[in-house]
Amino acid sequence: MKSFALLVGKAIEALVVIILATMSVLVFLNVVLRYGFNSSINVTEEVSRYMFVWLAFLGAILAFSENQHVNVTILTQKLSEKGQNILGIVTDSAMLFCCYLILDGGWQQFELNLSNLAPISGLPQGITYLAATVAGALIGVLIIARLVARIGILVKGEAK
User: Fold this and answer.
1) What is the 3-state secondary structure (H, E, C) of 38-99?
2) Which domain holds residue 48?
């Protein structure tokens, strides 16, 4: 299971690198064309916007998987290990519910905007909202794995 999670993580990292590199090239090329040749490629603005949204959501998945999000530990540091696990289960459950809301809302917006096409590129605007759905689902899977681990620690009595 861990090897599969590592594989998915590396695939997301590779996708983020590809998106960032493509965005950089497109924007740089457009700037050079605008200021150097008084012309531009119109589609780059729309494609870059789509890529930026996907980049933000995929980055959120990576940050969550590596536990690099903002943590406020003033209260949790003062608790015992068992208390930290119980509080972790409560907060993870709340975050799992939030992931459900993001997943559900993102999917609804995806379906609603799938028929709306971008004016220049002709790409469906629902693609933007699909990023939220993917992020909500993958972060939810990560939270479920963490919940199972924390519940396992409490059931086995390893936390003091």
Assistant:
1) CCCCCHHHHHHHHHHHHHHHHHHHHHHHCCCCCCCCCCHHHCCHHHHHHHHHHHHHHHHHHH
2) 2-156
